[in-house]
Amino acid sequence: MSEDPRCCGTGTCIINEEGICWCGQVWDGEKMCMPNNHNSEDTSQSLSNDSQAIIQRQ
Length: 58
What we know:
The chain is mostly helical. The protein has one domain (8-53). Helix content is 31%, strand content 7%. Strands 1-2 form a two-stranded antiparallel sheet.
């Protein structure tokens, strides 16, 4: 796994192009943090799309 400078420190971050980690945290330009409520639906949809893409590759 590559060392992404946006990693929250756990060493388990997988961050997509939109800056969204598999755990639901979002890169805010300075650090990883939980998304605002108004972004949570977009975050869920993006994570769902990423999951579907991974499944399809298998």
